Every structure is written in C-alpha cells, then in structure tokens.
C-alpha cells in the first residue's frame, strides 16, 4: 500500500533546495525518517548534496520535534530544517 | 494566564507589562526580557529576517510557556516573538512573567528566553549593507544555556 507524505523545508535548507515543500509517496506503509531521507537522497542528486553538506539537520513530524529513528506514515507532515536560532 | 503570540508588527511593551501587573492581586513582581536586533558590531549588519514554521512555532512556544507557568508557579506569562524583516534596534522578542515573588519571575524569564532560542522553530537571516546575506548559525553556548534548565532541582 502506498501513501503520501508532505515534506517541508525551512531556512537555509529551503533556500539551497530551491523549494519549500513537496509531496512524496512512501515505498512502504510506514518507514523510519532515515529511510525516507535515503529515498529522497537517492532520487535527487541536488538534495543529496545539500543534506551531505549540512550537518545537524533536524526533523519534525506533524509539528513535533522527532528523531531520524521515528516512524513516518501516510498523511504525515515531515519538516526538515537547520538548528533553530530564535530569540 | 498565558499569552503566546507570533506576529510581524511591533509589540507595545508598556501595554504588555501593564496587563501582566493587573493579572491578579497576588502579583508581587514581574520580570521582562526584550531582545532586539544588535548593531554596531563592525560587520555592517542592516537587518534580520526571522523565518518560522507556522503552527509548530505557536505550539512549541505554548509548551514552553506552560512548562514555565507550572515550574515557577507563575501568575502570568506573556511570550511575543516577531517574524519578518527587522532592522538594527528593532525589538524581536518579548518575554514577561508575573509571580508572587521576584525569584520565580526572574528565573522563569531566564528559562523562557534560554529555551526558546533553540527550542522553537525560528531561523535568522542576516543581511548586510554591502548586499551579503548569511543564515545565523546555532551557537553551542545557546544549547548549553537551554540544557542548564534540564534539572529542575537547581531552581
């Protein structure tokens, strides 16, 4: 069964990728974030370069901070961004 | 009472402080932190553009405010963070806390600003007078300041 997830990019990550969001289909019903990232990197050379060059990328699932071991499922909103610098 | 706001417009510090002071007859003091765009560093900084993750930002700020409220037994707590473009000297963030006694208010304000710098989805883009721009890097000292609040027994 295939499902789609919405992926958002912020700040320097968004700027370097040249896009702020995309919809992708999951290869399995649910996958760890790191598998999703591997899939994204293997089918997009530019994204692979950006992720390789940027250490400490953070992830949020459905607007909650998450880890790369957490599971993504169909319908989720997954966001990638550099460390936060508010205040 | 907790008030969390993310907005483009400037905030009125006097009005926010007055509202906090009147929040309860039990208020004995309040503490305020206001952060603004720092200039005169010799680097020609002209402006900061604050980007955020709408929805998640409000959720994370509310979570931090609720944590401060119960941890420091606050009577009132206001967090306002601006987004968009701001110039040298412009206010960026307001944190105000009201409590029965000064220690709680002072600690709660320090907790909130330390935590929100690295714990809410904001990012700063610096623009300089010569046309350069640069995303601000996270600082280890900020991570350390946020982590220092991990142990509530030290309050």
UniProtKB/TrEMBL annotation, chain A:
Record key words, sorted: Nucleotide-binding
GO MF annotation list: nucleotide binding
Pfam families given in the database record: ThiS
Signal sequence bounds: none
InterPro entries noted in UniProt: Beta-grasp_dom_sf, MOCS2A, Mopterin_synth/thiamin_S_b, ThiS/MoaD-like
Protein origin, superkingdom: Bacteria
A single Gene Ontology CC term: molybdopterin adenylyltransferase complex
One GO BP: Mo-molybdopterin cofactor biosynthetic process
CDD domains in the cross-refs: Ubl_MoaD (cd00754)
Entries under SUPFAM superfamilies matching the protein: MoaD/ThiS
Membership in a protein family: Belongs to the MoaD family.
Name of the protein this chain belongs to: Molybdopterin synthase sulfur carrier subunit
Organism encoding this protein: Acetobacter indonesiensis
Primary gene name: moaD
From TrEMBL, chain B:
Gene assigned in the entry: moaE
Species this protein is from: Acetobacter indonesiensis
GO biological process: Mo-molybdopterin cofactor biosynthetic process
Reactions catalysed, as given in the entry: 2 [molybdopterin-synthase sulfur-carrier protein]-C-terminal-Gly-aminoethanethioate + cyclic pyranopterin phosphate + H2O = molybdopterin + 2 [molybdopterin-synthase sulfur-carrier protein]-C-terminal Gly-Gly + 2 H(+)
Entry similarity comment: Belongs to the MoaE family.
Keyword Zinc in record: no
Protein name (record): Molybdopterin synthase catalytic subunit
Pfam families to which the protein is assigned, alphabetical: MoaE
Xref: CDD domains: MoaE
E.C. no: 2.8.1.12
Pathway named in the protein's UniProt entry: Cofactor biosynthesis; molybdopterin biosynthesis
Protein's UniProt keywords contain Transit peptide: no
Functional summary from the UniProt entry: Converts molybdopterin precursor Z into molybdopterin. This requires the incorporation of two sulfur atoms into precursor Z to generate a dithiolene group. The sulfur is provided by MoaD.
Keywords, in A-Z order: Molybdenum cofactor biosynthesis
Subunit (UniProt): Heterotetramer of 2 MoaD subunits and 2 MoaE subunits. Also stable as homodimer. The enzyme changes between these two forms during catalysis.
Top-rank taxon, per record: Bacteria
GO molecular function, one term: molybdopterin synthase activity
Database matches in SUPFAM superfamilies: Molybdopterin synthase subunit MoaE
């Amino acid at each position: 069964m295939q499902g789609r997830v919405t992926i958002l990019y912020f700040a320097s990550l968004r700027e370097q990728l040249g896009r702020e969001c995309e919809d992708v289909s999951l290869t399995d019903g649910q996958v760890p974030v790191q598998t999703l990232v591997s899939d994204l990197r293997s089918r997009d050379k530019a994204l692979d370069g950006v992720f390789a060059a940027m250490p400490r990328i953070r992830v949020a699932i459905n607007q909650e901070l998450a880890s790369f071991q957490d599971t993504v499922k169909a319908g989720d909103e997954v966001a990638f961004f550099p460390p936060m610098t508010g205040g | 009472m907790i008030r969390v706001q993310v907005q483009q417009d400037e905030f009125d510090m006097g009005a926010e402080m007055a509202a906090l002071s009147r929040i309860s007859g039990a208020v004995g003091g309040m503490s305020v932190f206001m952060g603004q765009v720092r200039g005169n560093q010799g680097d020609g900084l002209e402006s900061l553009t604050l980007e955020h993750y709408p929805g998640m930002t409000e959720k994370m700020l509310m979570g931090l405010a609720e944590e401060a409220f119960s941890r420091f037994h606050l009577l009132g707590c206001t967090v306002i963070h601006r987004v968009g473009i701001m110039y040298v000297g412009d206010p960026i963030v307001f944190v105000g806390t009201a409590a029965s006694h000064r220690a709680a208010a002072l600690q709660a304000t320090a907790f909130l600003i330390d935590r929100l710098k690295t714990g809410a989805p904001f990012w700063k883009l610096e623009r300089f007078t010569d046309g350069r721009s640069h995303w601000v890097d996270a600082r280890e000292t900020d991570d350390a300041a946020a982590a220092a609040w991990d142990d509530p027994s030290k309050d």
